[in-house]
Structures are given as structure tokens and as C-alpha cells.
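Hi,

I'm pasting everything inline rather than attaching a file, because the server keeps stripping attachments. The sequence lines come first, and each chain or strand is labelled.
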Amino acid sequence: MENETTRMSTEDYSLYYGKFKALNSINIEIPSNRITAFIGPSGCGKSTFLRSFNRMNDLIPGVTTTGTVNLDGRDVAREDVVKLRKKVGMVFQRPNPFPKSIFDNVAYGPRLHGLKNRSELAVLVEKSLRQAAIWEEVKDDLQKSGMSLSGGQQQRLCIARAIAVEPEVILMDEPASALDPVATLKIEELMNELKKNYTIAIVTHNMQQAGRVSDYTAFMLTDQNRAGNLIEFGATKQIFTTPVNSRTEDYISGRFG
Amino acid sequence: MNKRNFSQNMAFGMFWLAGIVSVLIMAFVVGYIMVKGLPGISLDFFTTSPRGGLSCDGGIYSTIVTTFYMIVVTLVFATPLGVGTAIYLTEYSSNTDNRVAGRMVSIARFGVDTLAGVPSIIFGLFGYALFVTAMNLGFSILSASLAGACLIIPVIIRTTEEALKAVPAGYREGSLALGANRWETTWKVVLPAALRGISTGILLSAGRIVSETAIFFVTLGGSYRVPHSLMSGGRTMALHVYYLAMETRAFDKAMSTAAVLVALIIIMNLAINMVTNKIAAK
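And the predicted assembly:
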């Protein structure tokens, strides 16, 4: 962890749904240009935690937080949410292309942020689709509806859409859980390419996937009050071979979860 | 055959019979009107206005024009209000932490549901008291459209709400996560996705205007002349059927007008089916 630059971090971050505490005082530093995986059993708060980084939890009535989430050392709560989400993109569990053409899906974000010039848009769309490793499959008909693609292609389209606004961080919430093994493999290969340019945080309930793709792994678990806690965080190799915490070891070795 | 199969067959037999009887009744009503009405229909019937009097010679030209005006003007008032309210109720208010706003919304919802069940003559009475008399708009297309808008706004709100709720949450999340604000998300993603559903609601409302009589009876006047402005009175086709049947001897004309009206309603329903089938196909 020593030689890494921190891209995002949290300090004593807790989150409440009304009076219910869902995340309990989490401290973590997510290194730049690496893939950080969040693992843990269902309901441990890993998705909620991921959504804290681009403030998607703001949309849920009754959510309050204490502590801070930082991007490049600055508290995201003080940042304009539009600017924050431009810097911190997100890919969801279910592929969610808009019912628009492939081109308009990718151009949606850039247009939103003021890019009008047609030729610049076309360049950006192609670049994004190439980076998301889907260009070759769709280049012949960019006017086709994004909904007409297969599940795996849709997810790569959504990744292209997220890349198109040139974010620093990409959050992925179980991006392959709705996909077949071949499509999953493509997404995983793609993530390895993407980390050259982006910082990636991924939630996965698939431990093999975490082991395959991530550089760092964070293990989360609920305490006796059902609040999510960060149990252990470290290099993926270390977490999977020599975990410090016995509960991490139990989970990794499949004794529960 | 065992007992259980027998009772099942009995039950399905009854349902089948009920279905056949309902269809037959409808077919009989439509068939009767068509048989009685169609012989009186010619091109002249559509292109000449009624001449009034007990025999009420002439056609229904002016009532077609009035019906058309009523649909357009009523929708001009009701669509923005109804769609706007539905957008507020589904896209904004559900995400509020504000107690007062939340309370207001539940009152608004309750109001919408109640209004949807109020007999139309009540809207007519209200329209007569407010628009015709108090605001001095007289018996006119304007008064009648405003009263008609009160009738169909709940319909538009309800159908638009349903259409908006049918838009997957993933579209909204996807848009917001790209840095769109709520309005941009609503305008660029949610509304286009809900457009067909909203159109269905508007078409349904247009159908209500075509078939409504009670409201217009007390707000539209009843003149059989071609309306020349928003302040003109008039009579819609449905209202014309009523006048012909009750105040003239031209029962055959009433039947012919009814046949045209039924054909129009059938066409509108086919249009609605086409729109909704396209949604289903998507």
C-alpha cells in the first residue's frame, strides 16, 4: 500500500437509513489506477458503501451520514453533485442502456456536460466504444437501439457511456452478476485494460472474480446491530492467502456467507 | 370423470357463457345502432349543418366541428396540467424528506382519486357556476373546455403516473450517475421512455370528451351553428344525439349521428390499442 496514490478515501464514515445504522465508521483509502474489490455476504452494506462515493444515496429519502468521503482529498459532500458524478462514474448490476441509439447512449453524458460539436462527439463516441472493447461489434450500425444488444454487450455499452464523460473513478456494482460466463470474462479483461486510465472500485459477491481481477480487496461484514463494518482491507493476494482477521479467513475459505 | 374435474368444467362453462352473453349484448347494441343509423348517412350528412326545427333536416357538420374544437381546446388545457402534476408526483415528491411536502402530496393523490370518481354532471354544475356565470364566459367552447379539463385532468394524471412508474429505475439511476440533474433525467430519458403510455392517456381523455354529454349540456349551450370562436356556443355529436332524441322528431338522425359517434369511438380505441401494442412489442 506504501507506494500508492490515494484517489478516494473515507474517514469515520457512517450511514443511517432513518435511525438504522447501515454503515459503521468506515476508514479506507482507495488507490489510484488500481482495482479495489469489495466483498462480503449479502446485506453487509458493500453496495451502499460503493454508492457513497458518487452520492447516489442522496436520492434515498431519510439517509444521513457522518464522517467524510473524499475524492483527491476533498470532501465530496461539499462538491457540486453534478461535477462529482462526472468525475466518479458508475456501472450498475443490471445493464441499463437508455432506449436510445448506441451513439446517443454514449453521447448522452458529453452532451449533458455541454459538448455539442458533432464531429467531436463522433470522435469521443468511437474512442469510448473502443476503450470499452465493443467498437468492433457495433461500428457498422451506431443508430441501432442500445436495447437490441445482448446483455454482455449492453454492459460494455454502459461502460462506454460511463467512460465518455472522462471520469477519474469508475464504480462497478456487481457488473457481471447478470451476465453469462463468457460475457463476464470479457468484462473482467476490460477492467484490467481500464485500470491504466481509471481507478476502479467493484462490488462483487463472487470471490473468484475478486481474486481474479482486483489488486486490493476489502472485506465487509455486519456486526451484531446489522451495521456494515470494514473488517479487513489489503492487497488481494494477502487477503486471499494470509488474512489477518479470522472472520475474513472463515469467509474466504467458504465457512459462511 | 371425477368430481373435481366436473366442478371445474361447470365453472369454466359458466364463465364462457357469461363472456358470450356480454359480447352478444355489446354486439347487439352496436349492431342495432348501425342498422338503424347507417341508411341515413351520406356525404351530405357530414357536410351540411343541422337546420333545426322539429324535423331537424340537414346533417351534422357543425357538431363534428364543435366536437373537434372541444377535443383540441380541452386537451390544450388539461395535458400540460395533468402531465405536469404526474411528473411532480412521481419524479420529485417521492424523494422528499420534507414532511409538509409529503403531506401535501398525499392530499393531492387523494384528491386526484376522488375527482376521478365524481359524476361528470358535478363538473358541469361547477363549470356552469364558475366559468359560465361568475367568470362571465357564457355558454361557450371556452367554458365547456375548462369544465371538461377538470373532468379529464385526473385521468391524464393517473395514466401518466402509471406510464412514468413503468419506466425502469435503472434509466433514472443511469442518467443521474452520469451527472444529469433530476430535470434533465426526466426530460431526456424518462419522458421519452414514457411517451407512448402518456399518449394512451391523452387518447383515452379525448374519448371521454367525445362521449361526454352531462358537462357540456350545462356549459356549451347547444347551438347547432358552426362555432366561429372560443366564445361561441355549440353542441358536440354526443350532445346532438341527446337533443335530437329528446327535442325533435328526427329519431332517425339521432341514430345516424350515434352510428358516426360509435364508429369514431371504435377508431379511437383501435388507435389506443395500436399505441399500447407497440409498447408491449418494445
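Residues 6-215+228-252 of chain A form a domain with the Rossmann fold fold (CATH 3.40.50.300).

If the labels don't parse on your end, tell me and I'll reformat.
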